[in-house]
Write a structure and sequence with these properties.
- By secondary structure, this protein is of the alpha+beta class.
- The longest helix has about 35 residues, at about 25-60.
- A hairpin with a 2-residue loop joins strand 11 (about 495-505) and strand 12 (about 505-515).
- The termini are far apart.
- It is elongated, with a radius of gyration of 35 Å.
- Strands 1, 2, 3, 4, 5, 6, 7, 8, 9 and 10 form a ten-stranded mixed beta sheet that branches. It has a two-stranded antiparallel sheet with strand order 11-12.
- The chain is built from 19 helices and twelve strands.
Length: about 525
């Protein structure tokens, strides 16, 4: 604000700061690059963190809130008459087979079920007992093309071969882990299992995103009573409702921490550049003071330089960061989140820039004309050397220069050190990941082979349960001794598990694992 009795010198301040900017192009390039890269990195990191959460929420919203487990087809058809239900997914896990050293899971699922599980397909779902939908990678393993309508032969572990008509291709990438999925028809389930083929029905409710778990539970129980469905078959997925209120603060704190450290490093670099720039312009500021320039005007000039450079660099960095954040996780992109992150990161970046140049601005404004005339970059005390003849080398000259400008040298070393720490940290995280070690730790922590009983391994033995196989005691002491006698086998570790169904917080499972004293 300019008082009526004051002269308006804002135009002169702008002209001088513009000339200062045009005269320091190399400095400006470094500052713009530093601010832009820091803004891009911070926005990309934060957008990735929010994108992961948004992707999980998007995926969760497509899933069911209620499941009726193993109910009759007649009860299932009554569900389609309910106005409160948006969609119904039908699922039945029929059996699994070993085909070409890979496990193939034969399941029945309708279109809504596949959609809720993010399992897209092309073609048509099977309708008759001899129709099937499989993955393209499974067709490749059998030596078939992806032409729809062809007849494919699938060899089963019992030596038989069954012919199926290919009606569709399932776009799911799981063949690289030796496990495939095949979709069969409901008609085949009826033929193989009859009345015992009780299907699971997954329910998606209208307006579920605005429901509480208690409301969904009340509706599920009321509907089950109307259709005479037992309480044991009613499952309300708590994970759907818990995910909406799940606290992701720890994850976002980690992302913000990385971004904050990055910006602190960038702020130190910006501070160093401005500090050096101000130090080199001390004499100019002193000359301006001799012609009547006030401290406030000096501050305005330096601050204006920082604001102009930040106004150029921050938008460039935000655009780059938004593009990177989108391509990192496109399924988690949300325009409102992107808008808020852009505004927040932009404001944070501007504040950091202003804080970084605050000390150089104070130093520039505090320069007096006399101090500027006798100013020298050398800030140490004069020391007389006892050595009359000293050897001049590049190393000795570099040492002398560093000792003369201690503040500048300290800032430069600090900036390089912090940058090196970030590079080493990120590189170590990326390079140290070992996929083979992770796979071994999860599936084969103490060996190379896993021999276990597995029910439902044959077309003709699909009704055999795991508990029935365990009662026959195939993995007895004679079998263990035979395996240990094989050349190269150094030992056997025992695990125990059984076939049992359980439900906890809306999640169900079919296996109960045991432990042994030597399982380390």
């Amino acid at each position: 604000m300019t008082w009526p009795f004051e002269n308006d010198t804002s135009g002169i301040v702008k002209r001088i700061s513009n000339r200062s900017i045009s005269a320091n192009r190399k400095r400006n390039i470094f500052i713009v690059l530093t601010i832009a890269l820091a803004s891009a990195l911070l926005s990309a990191i934060v957008l990735y963190g929010f994108g992961v959460m948004q992707e999980t929420q998007n995926r969760n919203q497509k899933t069911a809130q209620i499941m009726y487990h193993a109910i009759s087809e007649q009860q299932g058809q009554e569900l389609y008459k309910q106005e409160e239900i948006a969609w119904i997914g039908e699922f039945f896990n029929a059996f699994s087979e070993q085909v070409n050293h890979s496990t193939v899971n034969f399941t029945y699922a309708n279109a809504d079920m596949l959609t809720s599980q993010s399992m897209p397909y092309s073609g048509d779902l099977p309708a008759s007992e001899n129709e099937i939908v499989v993955q393209e990678s499974f067709l490749d393993s059998l030596g078939y093309s992806n032409e729809l309508g062809q007849t494919i032969q699938i060899p089963f572990s019992d030596g038989t071969t069954h012919d199926f008509k290919l009606t569709g291709i399932l776009d799911v990438k799981t063949g690289d882990i030796g496990r495939y999925t095949a979709i069969i028809s409901k008609e085949l389930v009826r033929q193989q299992y009859g009345d015992e083929g009780m299907i699971d029905y997954y329910i998606g409710l209208k307006g579920a995103q605005n429901m509480s778990e208690e409301e969904a539970t009340n509706y599920a129980n009321t509907l089950a009573q109307q259709l005479k469905i037992s309480d044991d078959s009613v499952i309300v997925r708590s994970t759907y409702f818990n995910l909406k209120d799940e606290n992701h603060g720890s994850d976002m704190l980690f992302y913000f921490l990385i971004g904050f450290v990055t910006f602190i490093g960038s702020g130190i670099v910006i501070y160093s550049i401005f500090y050096i720039s101000v130090a080199s312009s001390i004499r100019n500021y002193g000359q301006l003071r001799t012609i009547g320039t006030t401290k406030r005007q000096i501050k305005k000039m330096v601050y204006r330089e920082g604001k102009l450079l930040a106004a150029i660099a921050i938008p460039i960095g935000l655009v780059i960061g938004n593009v990177i954040g989108y391509f990192l996780i496109p399924t988690g992109w949300y325009w409102l989140t992107t808008l808020c992150v852009t505004a927040g990161v932009g404001l944070f970046a501007f504040i950091i820039v202003m804080i970084a140049i605050h000390t150089p601005v104070k130093r520039a404004a505090a320069v007096s004309p006399l101090e500027a005339l006798r100013y020298s970059d050398y800030q140490g005390k004069m020391k007389e050397s006892s050595v009359l003849h000293r050897k001049i080398t590049p190393a000795s000259l570099a040492k002398m220069n560093l000792s003369r400008q201690k503040a500048k040298s300290t800032l430069t070393i600090l900036s390089l050190s912090l940058g090196g720490v970030l590079v080493v940290l990120i590189s170590t995280m990326l390079v140290s990941y070992d996929g083979v070690a992770e796979a071994r730790g999860r599936a084969f922590p103490v060996g190379e082979f896993n021999i276990q009983l597995n029910a439902n391994q044959s077309w003709d033995t699909a009704g055999i349960s795991l508990s029935g196989l365990q009662q026959k005691n195939f993995l007895n002491a004679d079998f263990v001794n035979a395996v240990e006698s094989i050349d190269g086998v150094t030992g056997i570790k025992h695990w125990y598990y059984t076939d049992a169904e359980y439900r906890v917080n809306g999640n169900s499972g079919k296996w109960i694992q045991g432990f042994c004293r030597a399982c380390k």
